[in-house]
Amino acid sequence: MSAMHQQIKENIIQKIEANEYAPQSQLPTEAEFCETYGVSRTTVRTALQQLSQEGYVVRRQGQGTFVAEPKIRTNLSQTITSFTEQVTSQGKKPFIKVLSLQVIPADEELSDLLQTDANAAIQKIIRVRYVDEKPLQYEIAYVPWSIAPGITEEQCSVSLYSTLRDHYSVRIARTEEHLQLTTMDPFIATHLLSEEQTPCFYLETLAFLEDGKIAEHSQTYFHGERASFQIERHYS
């Protein structure tokens, strides 16, 4: 027979999956769980800590333990699919809000990244992506003017790669993506409706054309409690 904390954990998972404990609802207190299962607080605490580590619950100091929202999965595979396609395939409703669109001169760092001349015109696009009306991603994207001159705000409110393809005949051939953990600064936390220093995922992307030119560079912050990643590998 498995340890008592494991049995309690599995029982709570069953109730979460059966929607007896709904997403974002508060779980019973540790004392209430102790009474329900007839165990010590240490046993209950171990079960809740493991549930938190596995992403089933969120523990908030001074408030209690809450059922985590179902995470929005992002597939990091060999096939480039848009945010809209990935979210829609999970039965969710996507929405993109454009915060700003401006043309800036490339500084030394940007010109190196995008392989452009110094002071070349770069379109800087800041957007927030929502799923079911809740913010999931804060994104800053840079597109050289020479690649797609005059991108409009309306064109930025849908998939940027689709805009490049449909309006500029620019097709992304491949991307290089680097994923790491970081924390939200006050500005990003405000837009993702979270708190400063909350853990989040940071994804940096370079998008290449068939001839090797760089069409876009983006920096995306994912809400840590609402995002997950699936890595798909193919072996010959």
Written overview of the protein:
The chain is an alpha+beta fold and 236 residues long. It has two domains: 4-67, Winged helix-like DNA-binding domain superfamily/Winged helix DNA-binding domain (Arc Repressor Mutant, subunit A), CATH 1.10.10; 72-231, Chorismate lyase-like (Chorismate lyase). It has eight helices and ten strands. The chain has helices at 4-17, 30-37, 41-53, 83-88, 108-114, 153-156, 160-168, 186-191; strands spanning 57-60, 64-67, 72-76, 94-105, 121-131, 134-144, 174-183, 199-208, 214-223, 227-231. The strands form three sheets. The protein has a six-stranded antiparallel beta sheet with strand order 4-5-6-9-8-7. The protein has a two-stranded antiparallel ribbon with strand order 1-2. A hairpin with a 3-residue loop joins strand 1 and strand 2 (64-67). Helix 1 (4-17) crosses helix 3 and helix 2 (30-37) packs across helix 3 (41-53). The longest helix has 14 residues, at 4-17. It starts with a helix and ends in a 5-residue tail after the last strand.
Can you count the helices?
8
CATH homologous superfamily descriptor of the largest domain? Chorismate lyase-like
For the sheet with most strands, the description reads: 6 strands, antiparallel
Approximate strand percentage: 25-35%
Tell me the total number of β-strands.
10
Termini distance?
Answer: 41 Å
